[in-house]
User: Fold these one by one.
Assistant:
Number 1:
Amino acid sequence: MKIGILALQGAFSEHEQQLQRLGVATAQVRLPQHLADLDGLIIPGGESTTIGKLATDYGLVEPLRDFARQRPTWGTCAGLIFLAQDIGVAAQPILGLMAIHVNRNAFGRQVDSFETPLTIADVAEDVPFPAVFIRAPLITGVEAGVRVLATLPDGGIVAVRQGHWLATAFHPELTDDLRLHRYFCGMVNA
Ligand code: GLN
């Protein structure tokens, strides 16, 4: 099993380190040919407009969309935005795959970063996950076929799964908790 990490911008090396801790082979994806022998893909957090622009410049948008249609793909934070079908009016390149509605900068300036213990279905049910949010997007609605895995106390949706797609609004690569990475590896192995 080999999992690629989109390495255009953002927290890609932290994802790589988490996977390496699990003993999983990884590869950085910067060009379409880097997708060739991968079994799954992580799209990291960072700045979704920058990731979209660089993906366009490198001719990656359509190859990434094709790959994600066929293989397990996980977007964290900006990666969640990149996977979503609906991010409001913003005109920026996205893959537009997951049937979720997203508010890109939902938390505003005052609370632009915070950490909170999060219960995540199938992943962190007994011991909460230390979820780090950094200028995070919020999922404001989901369509049929999307399963909500985690919500904040006010009901805001922050983790979802739709078939072989996973999306989290927070940054599991910035903690030493490996449970979400292990869960994604299970999706790739399935
Ligand atoms: N707000 C950022 C964006 O729009 C995402 C922030 C993050 O990935 N930490 O892309």
Number 2:
Amino acid sequence: MALILDGRALSEKIRGELREEVEELKGRFGRAPTLAVVLVGNDPASEIYVRNKVKACEKVGISSIDRRFPADITQEELNSVVKELNENPEVDGIIVQLPLPEHLSCREVINYISPEKDVDGFHPVNVGKCMLGLYDQGLMPCTPAGVMKFFEAYNIPLKGKNAVMVGHSNIVGKPLANMLLNANATVSVCHVYTEDLSHYTRYADILCVATGVPHLIKADMVKEGAVVIDIGISRVNGKIVGDVDFDAVKEKASAITPVPGGVGPMTITMLLYNTVKAFKMRMGI
Ligand code: GUN
């Protein structure tokens, strides 16, 4: 039976440290770090995500600005909203909740966000710093950064290990593969077009999965003693499940993240972490 990597407990610990740091920063600089959240349209899932982000900010003392716009906002209008937030000296972090309505380009709006305020870590400048391992000089994407915190907190070695990343999204798969490579793991990246997925996954000492395909990874695809990180989240018959068949795989893995309660809470925690980091970088400390 695997060690369960507890994302709720790890989040609580990090959020507690952030709460103390925010208190100290408020005393020193006269205001709290501030996150601006931009929501376009009324996608119910996005509404919930945004509400959770704002609530999590409040709990650690981070101020938030909630900017909502109708689904028919134009690209130019949205770009100018971002420009105004870039120029607002009291805003430290900006996120534009994705997905956007079809007529809007998320790449264009992300490119508009000032890299120093890009707390999602999606701007090409931050993507480049991630690839180069210049973590201290930029803002790293929240989910991959949260996964790396698990390895650190549980003393899971990466150097020389076979790490397999299943999923090659810009938000998770590509940056996490880079972070694992920067930690000197031997990294394979698999995706929806990979032939014979289990050929790769069976060799993984570290198996990270971010596909959104419920229970894609079965026990016979996992090496005995592997560390399994499940970054998927889907709802199946009203139940929240990950990309890994948790009940079967936990009998074979040495450590595994559950869904829910694994990587999920760490994503928001790292958004808070990035907002505090952006504030400090802007204050020159
Ligand atoms: N939609 C789903 N996940 C994310 C995220 O991490 N950031 C933003 N901005 N939108 C999202």
